């Protein structure tokens, strides 16, 4: 009987934990959960492998491309000035397409409509390089999601997706990243899933990859069919993640295990 | 008050019902499990996934999760039938449980094509795991 009462009490706690969002005061970047060695690699630009993608992005920034023979720099000038804080505000509403767009999507849009060059596929080295370079210009700045009413519906959809149980394992993002962020899944810290460091250099990938690649990994982990790169679902999730992480400092390029 | 607590309270109020809901007999046509096979399955990080959430007297302690109770001595705390119910479908006891339903395909949205319509473990595999866990007396 005592056991059953204890079990009922445990059920009550579990029920509450599932629904709870992380209070702003308890928000912590994934960096805080890493080993001292991995944190040291991230902190030192000389050893952070993600800096190679920043350098590649910098040379693409200056390179004329497409039928326009314009470089990004020819319109935007010094990225340190023109791109400062841009990554902190994305995803944003895009008037041209009438839909939210994420940073990689916006860069690709300039590439096709302004440079008149062929579009860059998601996860291509070029798009990762440019995204890492532009993201790096916001390093240290707080994530500041725009309070644009045109984004509200997509952000709410992102929250709904975050809380939807998916896959054969029937787990939501929230089951792990809200209710169990203090725990370990196998040997890995679960963490709060904040998008502070993207694109990241992931030791497991031996390469830089996007936030969407990371989210696809978690979806495959619960044995769900991942959303497509660049899909409205992923941009909605990115919008919600940015709001959930508002105020945390950007760290691009972060290093992750 | 939330639904699982209510359900548990209802179970408490009707003696006998609680017992029946808290345990599950070996299904007809399933032979008693083999503990050695169960030990292998529990430690399998890709197939059963148990050690992603649970720790216990299994190999590689540093790769075991801590999202769920330690399974050391589980055979002393729960009967075989109680263990079987939990491994088969923890959500019958706790609809909000983190633990997946192993036997039926009670899955979430967008199940990957390779997994669609399939249970995580078949009944005989669950029976091996039950035999192994029931043998963990300390």
List keywords for this structure.
heterodimer; A: 257 residues; mainly alpha; Cytochrome Bc1 Complex, Chain D, domain 2; 2 domains; 3-stranded mixed β-sheet; two-stranded antiparallel ribbon; 12 helices; disordered N terminus; B: 138 residues; 7 helices; 39% helix; 0% strand; globular; Cytochrome c domain-containing protein (chain B); heme (chain B); heme binding (chain B); Thiosulf_SoxX (chain B)
Order of helices and strands of chain B: HHHHHHH
Gyration radius from CA atoms of chain A, angstroms: 19 Å
The first-level CATH class name of the largest domain in chain A: Mainly Alpha
Low-pLDDT windows of residues of chain A = 1-18
Number of strands of chain A: 7
Describe this structure in words.
The complex is a heterodimer of chains A (257) and B (138). By secondary structure, chain A is mostly helical. Helices cover 45% and strands 7% of the residues of chain A. Chain A is built from twelve helices and seven strands. In chain A, helix 3 crosses helix 8 (125-136) and helix 7 packs across helix 8 (125-136). Helices cover 39% and strands 0% of the residues of chain B. Chain B is built from seven helices and no strands. The longest helix of chain B has 12 residues, at 123-134. Mean pLDDT of chain B is 87; it is low at 1-19. The chains are: A mainly alpha (257), B mainly alpha (138). The interface between A and B is large, with 34 and 41 residues. Chain A: GO terms for molecular function: electron transfer activity; heme binding; metal ion binding; oxidoreductase activity, acting on a sulfur group of donors, cytochrome as acceptor; transferase activity.
Annotate the secondary structure layout:
The complex is a heterodimer of chains A (257) and B (138).
Chain A: H1 2-19, H2 36-43, H3 50-62, H4 72-76, H5 79-82, H6 86-89, E1 92-94, E2 99-101, H7 103-114, H8 125-136, H9 152-162, H10 173-177, E3 184-185, E4 188-189, E5 200-202, E6 207-209, H11 211-221, H12 232-244, E7 255-256
Parallel strand pairs in A: 5-7
Antiparallel strand pairs in A: 1-2, 3-4, 5-6
Chain B: H1 3-13, H2 17-21, H3 35-42, H4 50-53, H5 74-77, H6 80-89, H7 123-134
Helix pairs in contact in B: 3-7, 6-7
